[in-house]
Amino acid sequence: MVSRGGGSAIFQQQRELHAYTVNAAFQLSPRLRLNSHLLYSHLNADNNNQNFLWQSAKSIDLGGGVTDLHVQDGTLVSGHYLPTAALFNTSMEAIWRDSQVSTKSAHLDLVYDGIYWSSQFQVGLSQGSGGTKEDVTSQFSANTQFHVDTSMRKNIVTSYGISPLDAPSWFITEARNDSQDGKDKSYFAQADFAYDIDFKQLDAIKFGVKFKDHQRDFLRYRSKDGGLDGLAGELGTTLAAYPGTFVDDYLRGVGSDNTLKKYSFADIALLAKDFNTLNFEQEIEKASRFHITEKTAAAYGQMQLAGESYAANIGVRVVKTFQDSGAFKRVASPIDAPDSYIWHEESRDYSDILPSANIKFDLSESLISRFSIARVMSRAQFHHLMPSTNYNVTQAQGQGGNANLDPYRAAQFDVSLEWYFDDAGLASIALFNKEVESFIEFERKLERHEGILMSIDRPNNGAGGSIRGVELSYQQTLAYGFGLIANYTYVDGKRDNAEVGLRDKVPGTSKHSTNLTAYYENHQFSVRLSYNYRTQFATGVGETMMDNYGQLDGSLTVKLSDNLDAQFEFINLTDEQIYTYDRNEYAPTGVYVNGRRYYAGLRYQF
Question: What is the pTM of this model?
Answer without folding.
Answer: 0.83
